[in-house]
C-alpha cells in the first residue's frame, strides 16, 4: 500500500527553489506540469472551440498519407504511457511517495492526453480561412515548452537529489525515463515544424483547384504550384537522385579520392579540438614559469596545428586546401554526369513536350540546377556535417572538462540558433522561389524577343518589347528586395543569439577564474574554443541557406528529369527489318487532346517504290500522318506497318534510320554549310558531301560564296534564302540515303521558279523509293501513283489525278480553284508587263508636230 506522507520530501519545501547546487525536485516537478497542463488545457480548449465552431471537416483526399504522422502519434502516446508507468513504478517500489510525484504524473498525463486530442482535431478539421500551414501555435508552444523543461534538468547536474549519479536502481530508472522524455519531446518539436499530417497549402486553395481543375494557376516552370511547399519535401527522392553523383560508380580512383577526402574531414575535426588546448597550455606555461624547452615545444606544436587548421574566419588551412584540391576531380565528374544525363533525357522527350517548352526557362533551369548540385554536395559533406560534429564534440568536452553549465550554455545557444535558422529560412523560402520565377520570366521574355527580332521590326515594337522586359526586371527586383530583407533579419537574429551565448559563457568562466576554480588558461581555452566554434556556426546559416537555395534551384531540373517519355520502345523491341518498303495504315485513330480527334479510321497502303500524295485543307491531318509514321507520336487506335511490322513494336532508332524527311520549315544549325549537309550522315567524307550537294542542285550556288562550303549559315540558317535552305535539307536527305522519303509540303513557301528547280531535285531523291508527299500545290503531285484527299481527319477521296478530276469531287474543286488563282496571277503579271513596256516606249509624233 502506498502512503503519501507529505507533499515534498522531509528535508525540502516547495518554497525552496535551489537546493544542493540544483533546482529543488519538489519545486520543479510541481511548476513544470502545472504550466504545461494550464497552457494546454485553457489554450487547447479555446483552440478546439474555434475548430468546432468555425472549422470544417477535411475531405479525406486532401489529408496527406504519411508514416511520419503515425510516428508523431506513436511518440505522443509513448510519452503518455511513460508518465503513467513511471508514477506507478515509483508507487510500487517505495512505501512512501511524495505528493509532488503523484501530481507530476497525473498533470503530465492529462496534458499529453489533451495534446494528442488537439493533434487529432487538427488533422480532421480545418479553419477554412486559415492562410497558414502547419500546426497551430498551441501545439508548437506545448512541444517547445515540454522540450525546454527536459533541458532544464542539465542545470542540476551536480545535485544529489537528481538522477545524474546513476548509483542506485531508482536513479538509473529515472534517468532512463528522462532520456525517453528528452528524445521524445525533441522529436515532436522538430517533426511538428514540418507538420507531416497536414496539407501543405491552405485548404480553400486546395478546394478551389479541385473544383475548377486549375492546372496552370500560379505554376512554376514545369507545372506545379510550390509557393508554400517546403524545400525539404520529397527530400528522400532528391537525395536518391543525388546518390549516383555523390559516389562515382565504376571509377575506383575517384571512389578512393572520396574516401580520402572524408578522412581529411575527420582529421580537421581532431585538429579543431587540440588547437585551443595547446593555446591554453602555452598560457599556463607562461604564467607558471615553465622551462624554455617545454614552452618552445608547446608553441611549435600549436603553430603546426594552426598551419594545418588555417587562420580561421574562412581562411583555409593545409588540410582543407589538400581536400579541396583532391575534390576537383570528383566535382568535375559530378558536373559532367549531370549535364550529359539531362541533355540525353531532354532529347528523349516527345515532340509534344518540345513544342510546348519555353527555351529560356529550360536553359536557366539547367544552368542553375547543374551548378547547384556541386554546391549542395560540397556544403553537406564539408560544411554541415563537420559543423554539427564540432558542436557535439564541444558540448561533450565542456561538460567533462569544465562543468555542466558550460555545456548547457553551448547547447541552448546551438539549439536556439539552429532552430531559428531553420524556421526563418523556411519562412523566406517563398521569396527565393518567387525571385527564381521572376528571373525565369525576365530571361524567357528576352530570349523570345531576340528569337523573333524580325517580327519586332515588322511592327515597330521595339519600345513595347523593351517595356515588357523592364516590367519583368522590376518584378524581379521586388522579389529580390524581399529576399535580401529577410536575409538581413535572419543575420541579425543569429548575431543576437551568438553574442548572448558568448557573453554568458565568458562571464561565467571569468567568475570561476576569480574564485580560483579555473586557471587563466582555462578562460583562454573557453574564449578560443567558443570563437572557433562560432566561426563555422556563424556560417551555418549561410550553409543552410545555400543548401536550401540549391534544392530550390534544382527543383526545376528535377522536374525535367521527372518528365516521362511519351513515345517509348517496348522492353523486347527489335530492329525494323526493311525489305521492300511497303507502308500500311490500318484503321488509325489519333488525337492530340482528348475529345478532338485529328485522324479517324484512316486506312491506306503505299506499295514499294510508289509515291502517295496527301492533299486537303489546312488542319485536316496531313502532317499528322507524317509525324505518326516517323513515330513522333503513337496512334491511339489501329496500327501502322512497314513491311508487315508494327512500327510501335520496333526500336525508334532503327525505324528512323530508314526514313528521310524534308520538312516544310527547314531549320539549320548555326554552323557551316558542309557540316549542315553532313548531319545527314556524320561519318560522310567531304567528297560525299559535295556529291549530295550536286544531286540537290546547290553545289554551284555554294561555290559562289566567298567561303564556299565553310560558309556560316547563321542561327536557324537565316543567312540563306528559303530555296537554299530547302536544297541543303534535300542534300542532307540524299546523304542519309533513306529507303522511305517523307516530304511535308517541302515547297509550299517558295516561288514558282524555285519550286520547279527544287521539285526536280526531289524527283531525283525519290526515284525508286517509297515516298509520301504532303502537298499544298496540286500541280506538284500530278504524277503521284495515288492521291489521298484528307478532310476532317478522314480519307474523302483516293485515286490518280485524272480519276479524281473526272469524279468532280473535293479534289476537282481544289484543282479548279488553284487553276483560277494561277490564271489570275498570270494575267496580272501580263498586264503589269504591258504597263511597264508602255512607259518605256518613246511618245509618238503626229504630222502636225512635224
UniProtKB/TrEMBL annotation:
Belongs to the ABC transporter superfamily. ABCB family. Heavy Metal importer (TC 3.A.1.210) subfamily. It catalyses: heme b(in) + ATP + H2O = heme b(out) + ADP + phosphate + H(+); coproporphyrin III(in) + ATP + H2O = coproporphyrin III(out) + ADP + phosphate + H(+); pheophorbide a(in) + ATP + H2O = pheophorbide a(out) + ADP + phosphate + H(+); coproporphyrinogen III(in) + ATP + H2O = coproporphyrinogen III(out) + ADP + phosphate + H(+). It is found in: Cell membrane; Early endosome membrane; Endoplasmic reticulum membrane; Endosome membrane. This is ATP-binding cassette sub-family B member 6. It comes from Anabas testudineus (Climbing perch). GO terms for molecular function: ABC-type heme transporter activity; ATP binding; ATP hydrolysis activity; heme binding. SUPFAM superfamilies: ABC transporter transmembrane region (SSF90123), P-loop containing nucleoside triphosphate hydrolases (SSF52540). One of its GO terms (cellular component) is extracellular region. Residues 817-850 are annotated as: Disordered. Residues 259-549 form the ABC transmembrane type-1 domain. SMART domains: AAA. The lineage of its organism: Eukaryota, Metazoa, Chordata, Craniata, Vertebrata.
